[in-house]
């Protein structure tokens, strides 16, 4: 055996061994796409304008509080746009107080006086940073919430300016996941002004008519004082259908919010009903202790995302922990604890699209895909053997190696196998033969022209080479564009197709040639080959 | 065994005839696809919500359609999925103004309203493994929570996962025996489940929602992918051969794509992202085929300086005939296998490739080559010199 033959053989063997070791056992080493494994794929958009708006509100409140605290008691303001507000009641001579407040607290704003008003505009840099941070924070919050679901290998990635892609393999309850992820989870505790240790009225009109101020004792007379607002509690029956509402007059200011929570955990209440145990931070606990201590006997409304969950009466001062109870199921309590622990979302989330593949659909797809593949493979093998006789064996061996290399490459590069990908592999089986066919037909032609066996084989390979390359490269170009413009399953297909083409080029050009050469060296003179 | 050993078919003789036939078919295909809303667009491109629902008993498509209309979904489309024994349908609802997160919940509740008794209990066929684990944890039939809550949680997670595996294998749970026969399920757990959970009459195998933004993006991406791939191939062939061959190949590909698309539309198969992938593969394959012929033409032109382009083309077509038949044959066999045995999801894909291989082979002979010939006649070196001297 000459040197070239030997080393080529070694190279081929090395590739085969590496491929085989990477790929087997198949179940462990091949990454399956969601369409085969089952799972959920979500595309979310973070409504960054919400974050801008709430920052503006916060900064406006802070500025007005500062100005009032510094003696400008007439100062007031209102937001004019998401990223702009106007401040009134500041006399022209007091601009230096404004400047002081802005320099200390409002770095991201530019302002100018326009007559009696001062107009504030958020700087572009500040606005961009807020938007960017809100997306980053949203990704983190979502990641925390998904951790509670115990998903193996979740994918949570930012895509572009404000999109997030979430992939959860193996999860089969998309409604629950969407609710869990998208929940704003804005928690507030508010003191209830009316009713005090009594049943709440079931309509807004009734509340405004009979309600009265808990401090002064005076009736509302149809209109709530400025520091109060109406919040409702939704009552549901066992089948979770709304059967009525209760209305409370609560303070606009919250005693504590979700930010003051240290932790939240599901637990059991006095009657073994599912409740959420919450634990406050040190400062949160202090604030809460003061407020509850000063409002004993009044109700404490627990408001989640704008709705009252429950409004128990305050029996004594509460310092650092408490329970949230309502008519919760175990599942609701688990999810609520998760959501409170992970923190509120900085901005609203909209779902742009989602795909769910149930595990049984994925399983079936795998089975069917493989069965079709085996059938196709079997038929091709038969055809090659009949048509090309013993050289057909060469082609079949090349084909088998092709498959090994394809799976090995998939495993080695961590590429994902999707259902179209399986179809791609099956397709490659059909097309891979093409390279061999081109060579064999050429060899047959050269033999017919009267060349010797050895030179026919050489001529066959060399003349067919450029054709093989041209033809496969054009298919490769198609795969490239598919990869660029495709997502998910299509990308999987493009990758598998590309790997398949490269593998079949390798086996057809390199391996088939080597096998022929190997057979030729066995005899001094060969006058016939079975082709 | 050798077919086509030494053929001398005069392919080019009837080229005008076949060219005209092809053009007529092509125009007819184009008109058929472009007019009327015949193309069955998947939600990838049309937007909307899609659910694949499997029933315990054979579902009546008309009943389901009436339910959808009653539930406010006038434009819902209902198709069978899989084989008859699967008892599954695909329900598609278009985008609506108020439901921008999709209508899955609404459709599920419409179906539940009709097919289920209202009990409010956990439905193991509709709710996921995690919910089942939570419910078992709350019920604690094996009384493990008093000892160690974390271990209890894991224990019930394991049971729920095992039930999930059974559901994955059968698709839809139909009897409590399927659950109680599992090793991890103690009699207490089985009793607790039978008491507080139900096995609903249908399950959602899969689904998806595509909002307007994403739908728009996918549409334009899909279109760009095909257009740019064609341009890319044209450029490559021009680089390796000459412009006339590139043009010939592109015309042949366009021909293949439209005719296949027309037949695809007639068959009523769903046009979605996987379909675009199939078309791009078809494009690759068709060009592949034409390139093999052109390669031979180029080789023969070098050797045979006397012959006209027409003669050389004929010769090349004959020489590559064996290879063409063989490769098309094996590829056909393989995609045929996928078409017959590959299941519902891949059917559209396999259909496109099957038709595509046949039409593609034809077009390499009767579209690509004659067109290259025509181009050469009009714009080629000879024509240019004739015009100059004229």
What does this protein structure show overall?
The complex is a heterodimer of chains A (531) and B (390). Chain A is an alpha+beta fold and 531 residues long. In chain A, 52% of the residues lie in helices and 22% in strands. Chain A contains 14 helices and 19 strands. Chain A has helices at residues 3-23, 26-29, 34-37, 48-69, 95-105, 124-147, 174-182, 204-210, 282-294, 330-342, 359-412, 419-448, 453-485, 489-521; strands at 31-32, 39-47, 76-81, 84-88, 109-114, 117-122, 155-159, 163-169, 187-194, 228-236, 242-251, 256-257, 261-268, 274-280, 299-304, 307-310, 321-324, 348-357, 416-417. In chain A, strands 9, 10, 11, 12, 15 and 16 form a six-stranded antiparallel beta sheet that branches. In chain A, strands 7-8-2-18 form a four-stranded antiparallel beta sheet. In chain A, helix 12 (419-448) packs antiparallel against helix 13. By secondary structure, chain B is of the alpha/beta class. Chain B has three domains: 11-36 and 211-389, Multidrug efflux transporter AcrB transmembrane domain (Multidrug efflux transporter AcrB transmembrane fold), CATH 1.20.1640.10; 48-116 and 205-210, 2-Layer Sandwich (Alpha-Beta Plaits); 121-200, no CATH class. In chain B, helix 5 (129-139) crosses helix 6, helix 9 (212-240) packs antiparallel against helix 10 (243-266) and helix 11 runs parallel beside helix 13. Chain B is elongated, with a radius of gyration of 29 Å. Classes of the chains: A alpha+beta (531), B alpha/beta (390). Chains A and B meet through helix 7, helix 10, strand 18, helix 11 and helix 12 of A and helix 5, helix 6, strand 7, helix 9 and helix 11 of B. Strand 18 of chain A pairs antiparallel with strand 7 (202-210) of chain B.
